[in-house]
Amino acid sequence: MSPGSGHVTLPPSLIVAIGSVIGSLTILLFLEKKSQQRCTKHSSTSSRNNDPFLQDKRQRLPSLILLLRHAESEGNADHTLWRTKPDNLISLTEKGYKEAIEAGKRIETIFQIYDKQHPESGDRNSAGKTLRVHIHVSPFERTLQTARAARQAFEHRVVRTSPESRIREQEFGNFSLKDSLEQRQEQQQVGRFWYRFPTGESGADVYDRVKSWWCESVLTINERIGYEPVDAVVVVTHSLSMRFVLMQLYNWSPLTFHSVWAAQSCELYVLRKDMSLPGIDPYVLDDVHGDMPRSSIDVYVRLRKYENDDTTDDSTTSSSATSSSTSIIKLLRLHNYLNIPPPRTIQFDLIKEQLMEQYPHEIQSIDDIESISFKPIMHMPESFDTALVDKDSTISVNNQPQKSGFDCNKTGSRSQLGGENHEPLEKSFRWPRTCTKSSSTT
User: Fold this and answer.
1) 266 and 120 in one domain?
2) Which range is least confidently modeled, 38-47, 283-292, 412-421, 432-441?
3) What is the pTM of this model?
4) What's the pLDDT score for residue 431?
């Protein structure tokens, strides 16, 4: 203490020691907090699933969400029409009107089945029916016409209809001009998810607005004060929007998205609420009452061929070594890419098995497959010698009907659903009902 000052003066060494102790205690407290956070993180999923507020919110979600693609339009029947008529004004054909009416009858049949299976699902409306329906429709002419024709079959269930611009078709520009062919070729190189049309949108732009609509409108549809809750939502939209609903729901990667085929006219995806699933949107595709998305992806496959192999074509095979075997590269179309559980791009053993099943005449043994590379890609892998590519087999496509969807008998659980607008090469089959939703992304 300084004489007459009343203040204590500590030696510098003691001040340093006290600072070191305080610093050490701070670090220990920080590490303890991080340790508690790690422990909490492992149990957070279980805690969230048991949260009463979240469970009540999940319970209030609509029991069914039906995604319906519009019926056949003038643009589907005449592909040159896009050059002269605005996309939003393209109407249905006579065949399209008939398709829409039949789609409405199909939807009503699904609702009737649900009425019988879930008689206690809610208060009955004035018509004595359990299901109350809210229609969301893209404001394009062909989707509005599809909705008007389809709803005749279940008009007594509809409580309201909402035009929704966020689920409209991708904007390809004000008109599909004479440069459209060149733009489509560029799109094939860049990928439909990423390519942005001049004065138009990229697929990623459409994905963002579709996800916004899903989170802000669908998941809160029964949360709005003053509005009657609904049991089902019928969404009349476009093929791309339908795929993006599934993409955000099942966390598809862009590669998986590119593998999924466009839905056909009036194709119907039925999302059924399953409270055993985690998350804020516990929906699963109904494989009994709805259609299922189909998928395929092109892969470069390096095949080992032996000199005594009668199936080897000398005109398309180049020797890769001065041994008794040769190698060729084939571009094959892997059907049912969604059968592969995520992360799909590293499941080489399963991919090899599936390729061997689909191309038995070209692949006799899994050991014949030396390597696999996925397409779409901008360039062939550096490890591939372009001189070895079997030009006659590009693309070698097995046109035999393939089972569409997931094969739970192989994977043990349902992988995620996994497009480009491929022409149909396979028939649609039903998926096992015991599959469960996955959360991986590839």
Assistant:
1) yes
2) 412-421
3) 0.73
4) 29
Q: For residue 144, give both structure tokens.
A: 């509005």
**Is 100 known to sit in a ligand binding site?**
no
Q: Does pLDDT of 65 surpass 60?
A: yes
Closest CA to 370 of 336, 385, 379: 385
DSSP class of residue 51? Answer: -
Residues labelled catalytic = 70, 169
pLDDT of residue 296 exceeding 50:
yes
73 is in an annotated binding site: yes
Count of domains observed in the chain:
3
Please say which residue of 247, 264, 285 terminates a domain: 285
- Whether pLDDT at 423 is above 50: no
Structure tokens at 264: 């056909």
Give the HSE-up count for residue 118: Cα atoms under 13 Å, Cβ half-sphere: 18
Answer yes or no: is 96 a known binding residue. no
d(CA 240, CA 243): 5
pLDDT of 43 reads 45
Statement to judge: residues 188 and 269 lie in one domain: yes
Q: What is the SS3 string spanning 298-354?
A: EEEEEEEEECCCCCCCHHHCECCCCCCEEEEEEEEEEECHHHCCCCHHHCHHHHHHH
The answer to whether residues 147 and 236 touch, using CB atoms and an 8 Å cutoff, is yes
Could you tell me whether strands 268-273 and 64-69 are parallel, antiparallel, or unpaired per DSSP bridges? Answer: antiparallel
Which of 249, 261, 254 is closest to 285 using CA atoms?
249
Residues 263 and 306 in one domain: no
Interhelix angle 52-59/12-49, nearest 10 degrees: 30
The residue-averaged pLDDT of 374-393 equals: 46
Place of tokens 């490890």: 383
What is the span of the domain harbouring residue 18? 12-50
Task: Report the residue count for the chain.
Answer: 442
- Look up residue 12 and give its two tokens: 């510098």
**Cis link prior to 343 (omega < 30° from 0)?**
yes
For residue 363 the two structure tokens come to 């692949």
Does 232 appear as a known binding residue? no
Same domain, 157 and 300: no
pLDDT score of 271 more than 80: yes
Buried/exposed code over 380-411 (b: 16+ C-beta within 10 A; e: otherwise): eeeebeeebbbeebeeeebeeebbbbbbbeeb
**Is pLDDT at 192 greater than 60 in this prediction?**
yes
Are 33 and 98 found together in one domain? Answer: no
Establish if 426 belongs to a structural domain: no
